[in-house]
Amino acid sequence: MVAYSNAGDQYRQQSAMTASPGELTLMLYDGCIKDLKLAKIHIDAKDYAKTNDVLQKAQAIVNELIRSLDMQYAVSKQLMQLYDYIINTIVWANVRKDIAKIDESIELITELRDTWKQVIRLNRKQQPLVSGSLV
User: Closest by alpha carbon to 100, among 90, 110, 109?
Assistant: First the structure.
């Protein structure tokens, strides 16, 4: 089992190293959703230490998304407000072990991720073919 885990870690690390900035953002969204879903499982199991760990990881991911914003754009300012709200929601969920707040965070992050996926798809369609292959 360890060999599979290490292989998976190596694959994820290689994927992150070769990903475009847009794909990295998508990976952050996916990681945050995964951690939020794990938090629900840990709350149900009454494992509050693990709940805290994964919710703190989710917060760290949202903080990384905040750091990646280019504040010269109006949309970044709007995203900053949304990310701040999500962080506050995650903190509340962690303090109160509130699954409804986790669900709210999952819903918001999922909407952002799905929108981001569409942006990436549209950008790929608009890019010309290079050397006969898709970029």
Answer: 90
